[in-house]
Amino acid sequence: MRKKQAQILVVDDQEEILFSAKMILKKHFETIFTTNNPKKIISLLSENEINVVLLDMNYRIGFEDGREGIHWLKEIKTLSPQTIVILMTAFGKIETAVEGIKIGAFDYVLKPWNNEKLLETIDKAVVESRKNSKKTSVEKTEKTEKKYFVGTSAKIKQAYSMAEKVAKTDANVLILGENGTGKYVFAEFIHQHSERRNQPFVHVDLGSLSDNLFESELFGYAKGAFTDAKIDTPGRFETASNGTIFLDEIGNIPLHLQAKLLHVLQTKMVTRLGESKPRPLNVRIIAATNSDIKAEVKNKTFREDLLYRINTMEINLPSLRERKDDIVPMAIFILEQVAEKYDNGSEAAGWHFDDNAAPYLEKYPWKGNVREMENKIERALILAENNTISVMDLDILDFEEIQENDENPLSELEKSAIEKALFKHNGNISKTAEELGLSRAALYRRIEKYDLKN
């Protein structure tokens, strides 16, 4: 029997399960990988074109709620969207597997499995993976042409111009900007316009790493380096080999760990925990922070030599407050992207903002910048009817920031929104005020102002 050209990865903490699966699958498929450590998934996906992952949902004794499986499912879909994931679960734990299907798993199999059922499910998954591969190959050719919203403000155009220039080099880049200004998107833009574009782009949120996980996650560890270190595991730096590592929120690293990171950047070598032999690194460093990093250097909470190492090129991203003219065009751009996500492109072109929304979009403070806009638009699209996004759907009725001026062009919009909210809540002042983000007193003033009394 001729084997099918496919690479299958089986992940389970029980060696007997891995052995059984491999014995069955190797008769039908070309390459079978197995691992009992889910952390190995990252390196296996980066080093191989895995078609299908057969993923167990539980890995630690006493933790059998399937949350680990859901976590690794999300990681796989992020790292390798074209890879198909089949979940393995015991009878009685099916609800979690069904939850997994809702967020991207292809199917699930019950343990102990029926061999024919297992092979049939994996066969279908391989067919689906080939469809994904064709789609992904098209996307890869378009990857460097991926749409990024630039806008017309001088500050953002200057930032993109600098990014295009530095992308052609291997210089380290430090991206500065408030939360939500798009530092991740910007780092990805630099990677996709570099010679490393076809190599891994590895994002590390340093703000979420505890001190005791910092070294093992970034630098990796050898088998036996600590209690749960069952196999040799590469860190994020090694996973990003030949590509780009994005060190997000670098300003959050404690001083004693900054020295360890600096040593790796200076020597371009990494030593796994539990080993003595350093491994050479070939990675592009992009770092980002929302903190005033120079003030931290002055206050001696961030090492000056580390700052010099990461900011060969420093790029500042402006907040939305600094690019008012870009707000409405950006909102339209984001709406198109979100519509494609939910409608698979079939009806994406039909979505639009209500004609009254523009002045509110411009007036709203957007303290969370682009991220806040994305969240509000996605929520609005879910709630909206008839493919039209209204001010009410967007939840941006920040009336306290609107000047009390009858000639204000927003007055009619405000009056209309209050009328609709009062009608919706049958005149209940408390519920109306809560929906509109007003105090009861402020709502009463506006009811009197617009003569909305019954």
Q: What's the short version?
A:
The protein is built from 19 helices and 16 strands. It is an alpha/beta fold. α2 packs parallel to α3, α3 runs parallel beside α4 and α17 packs across α18.
Helix content: 40-55%
Structural class: alpha/beta
Rg over alpha carbons: 26 Å
Strand order of the largest sheet: 2-1-3-4-5
Alpha-carbon distance between the two ends: 82 Å
Dominant shape = globular
Note poorly predicted spans: 138-144, 344-348, 399-407
Number of strands: 16
Q: How would you sum up this structure, described in words?
A:
This protein has about 450 residues and is an alpha/beta fold. It is about 45% helix and about 15% strand. The protein is built from 19 helices and 16 strands. The strands form five sheets. The protein has a five-stranded parallel β-sheet, sandwiched between helices. α1 links the parallel β1 and β2. α3 runs parallel beside α4 and α6 runs parallel beside α7. It is globular, with a radius of gyration of 26 Å. The protein starts with a strand and ends in a 5-residue tail after the last helix. About 5% of the residues have low confidence.
Layout: helices, strands, pairs:
Layout: E1 4-11, H1 15-25, E2 29-35, H2 41-47, E3 52-56, H3 67-79, E4 84-90, H4 94-102, E5 107-111, H5 115-142, H6 154-167, E6 173-176, H7 183-192, E7 201-205, H8 211-219, E8 220-221, E9 233-234, H9 236-239, E10 244-248, H10 255-267, E11 269-270, E12 279-280, E13 284-289, H11 293-298, H12 304-310, E14 313-316, H13 327-343, E15 352-353, H14 357-363, H15 369-383, E16 388-389, H16 391-394, H17 411-424, H18 429-436, H19 440-449
Parallel strand pairs: 1-2, 1-3, 3-4, 4-5, 6-13, 6-14, 7-10, 10-13, 15-16
Antiparallel strand pairs: 8-9, 11-12
Helix pairs in contact: 2-3, 3-4, 6-7, 10-12, 13-15, 17-18, 18-19
